[in-house]
Amino acid sequence: MEAPPVTVMPVTGGTINMMEYLLQGSVLDQSLESLLHRLRGLCDNMEPESFADHELVYLLKGQQGNPFMLRARRSLLHPTAPWHLRYLGQPEVGDKSRHALVRNCVDVAASHSLPDFLNEMGFRMDHEFVAKGQVFRKGAMKVVVSKLLRVLASGNTENTEPLSLSYLVELSVLAPAGQDTVSEDMRSFAEQLKPLVHLEKIDPKRLM
Amino acid sequence: MAKSCFLQLIAQVQEVSLDGLETYVPLLSMSQNLAKLAQRIDFNQSSDSDEDGPERESREPWGKPEPEEDEGTVKFQPSLWPWDSVRNNLRSALTEMCVLHDVLSVLKDKKYMALDPVSQDPALTKTPQVFQLISKKKSLATAAQLLLKGAEKLTKSLAENQEQRRQRDFNSELLRLRSQWKLRKVGHKILGDLSYRSAGSLFPHHGTFEVIKNTDIDLDKKVPDDYCPLNVQIPSDLEGSAYIKVSIQKQSADIGDLGTVSLFRRQPKAKPGSQMWHLKLEAAQNVLLCKEIFAQLSREAVQIKSQIPHIVVKNQIISQPFPGLQLSISLCHSTGEKKSQRASPDKSKPDDHLYVLEHNLHQLIREVHTMPHPASSPFGHKRLRLAGPMAYDKAEISSLQQSEGLLEKIIKQAKHIFLRSRTARTIDSLASRIEDPQIQAHWSNINSVYESSVKVLITSQGYEQICKSIQLQLNIGVEQIRVVHRDGRVITLSHQEQELQDFLLSQMSQHQVHAVQQLAKVMGWHVLSFSNHVGLGPIESIGNASAITVASPSGEHAISVRNGPESGCKVLVQFPRNQAKELPKSDAVQDARWTHLRGPYREVHCGRMEGRNFVYKMELLMAALSPCP
């Protein structure tokens, strides 16, 4: 049975038309403490929350060139929490002066049968990793400081090894399309973290 | 000597003639020079100088008490050998030295001569003491000088420190400010944030204050005690102080005004260490909080549909939880220094439920955010995320989303407070009005915001142990009162006070009859019939009448009691036939023993009987009717 045709266009219309504004950076392990201190002072809510997530990336290879990618993520600390399925579109090529990476984003909560469901649909797991770190928030902005760990044996999240000696810092906002003031706020927040970590928009296409 | 000769070799110019020729002073010959120098020696200057030498320096006295014999200047005789006087002096000195040497060598043997110390003349010793005193004084004076100098230095540095601390330079003050408030630098200005946004509030007010340097200080005048080099400028609409006034009014005789309470009206007590900027910022933050609460309340007042719509007028929200009861919430914002003229009669009485209201308001404003797990999911309500996976239907989702607004909670609390106080008033008025039976209310200490409970006991004085069948547990809710009877019945009363009063009155009348029943058991009388709700006799408007008939142990007498809430109590006693005044003669009943049966009734005037309450009267009656064996 051949795979159903896959459209590359992102899902639009309806009420799920959220854009994700993203800025990324990284810090070395040694500088993590000072960054966490700074974030605790700048963000809301005194107690930062730690997380440990296991993310699986599924690809659906169609006849066309680009495979369709979906990200399924579950929490290792809260096993009963629902899975989170995410689709991220292509970054919008708007004007270059926009400070953050903007892409279409669809978030869906799913039950624990998600991997089986995706397998049945024809998706195949491309890679998986474990992310551990802390989450901060300031209003609508979310700052995630995470260490990415490689899973050595597929499915076994106990055996992991770090991918690098640094932490990934992501500043993201989910907003409806068309709000450009969001990127201004993000840029000013990133300015406040300036000497510790440089958050900038990193085009994923350029990395490949 | 050689030096002076050398100096003499350089000729001195006597005169310079007009044609430039220099005439030198003729140099002295050797002998002439020597004569000149010998002339210069003055042996009287130093007391005994045995040295030769033209230089006259101060020499230590030798201690030879013999003064020089030749005083005055030595006459210079140029014909004499110039060293003659020198030679004479040396010879005499040598002689004296030899004598001294001989004396010392004789002394050394100690055979012929000995040295004895000369006794000190007391006149001589006086002066050394004075010297000692003077020398001690001098040394003490130097020591004291040193200490004083050191002390002076210390006091100066201490005064400088204090001066510095009082002056409190701008930067150290800024550090203190930063330790308590959020500051950030924007361009040249230092801005701060006094809003509750970091605690989760979504009020659109910016809440930004500016920190400015206080430069209006006159350094010549004395620095005032409360001087602060730092000043804060708060937004103009947050100036002054504000509080929220909640009042419940009812124009009715039974309750009257339930009172007024001000919330968030702390008078900031100036702690000794706190700065003026701190008080200012705290007051501004309080104003912001009151504004936010009031904005939320007025927004809800407009949105919520209730039976009686709420009225929002400028800074006052008026709503009617119950008909006739008015709840008004107003925001009182006083700007500037002028105090409000009206005296505040509400000295914040320790009403615990209103503190709970304030605490609730604080909690409601600051929502606690939960972080999503896994971390990549968007922010949102944790339960709502389960709606998809768990396939909630519309009813479940709407129940999740429905959260009670602030105003609704306040109204509910107001209703409960009102209902509770009215219940208490009703019970108290009944207790004071009716003495028999007695009504007791035991209020429970632990209540919730929306529920209180009270246990009501109806007893007769003196017979508490016997007649305890009427015990009611009242649970006062928001709009209703739930009554749980001892026998298991559950009755729900509305907020109407009349219902509660009627109910209690009916229970009291039932109690009387129950009491007679218990009494009969104790006295040995037999209960012939008992009914809580009799269908005979006049109809009561409140509840039902109850009746009981008891017979004496011998069977000769019987007492019937009928008690109704309105009709009061009626007691009838049945006598045996042979005690009746008129005995209807009948042909059917011939035998004399039938006269022992009970026959006619006679009413008892309870009012004229002795006894402080009904049960006591009944006991007396029973006792009177059962003769001693």
Automatic annotation (TrEMBL), chain A:
GO terms for molecular function: transcription coregulator activity. Belongs to the Mediator complex subunit 18 family. GO terms for cellular component: core mediator complex; mediator complex. This is Mediator of RNA polymerase II transcription subunit 18. It holds the Pfam family Med18. It comes from Sinocyclocheilus anshuiensis. InterPro entries: Mediator_Med18. It is found in: Nucleus. Its main location: nucleus. Component of the Mediator complex. One of its GO terms (biological process) is regulation of transcription by RNA polymerase II.
TrEMBL record, chain B:
GO terms for cellular component: core mediator complex; mediator complex. InterPro entries: Mediator_Med17. GO terms for molecular function: transcription coregulator activity. It holds the Pfam family Med17. GO terms for biological process: regulation of transcription by RNA polymerase II. The keyword Nucleus applies. Residues 42-74 are annotated as: Disordered. Keywords: Activator, Nucleus, Transcription, Transcription regulation. It is found in: Nucleus. The keyword Nucleus applies. Residues 55-66 have a biased composition (Basic and acidic residues). Belongs to the Mediator complex subunit 17 family. Component of the Mediator complex, a coactivator involved in the regulated transcription of nearly all RNA polymerase II-dependent genes. Mediator functions as a bridge to convey information from gene-specific regulatory proteins to the basal RNA polymerase II transcription machinery. Mediator is recruited to promoters by direct interactions with regulatory proteins and serves as a scaffold for the assembly of a functional preinitiation complex with RNA polymerase II and the general transcription factors. Component of the Mediator complex. This is Mediator of RNA polymerase II transcription subunit 17. It comes from Sinocyclocheilus anshuiensis. The gene is med17.
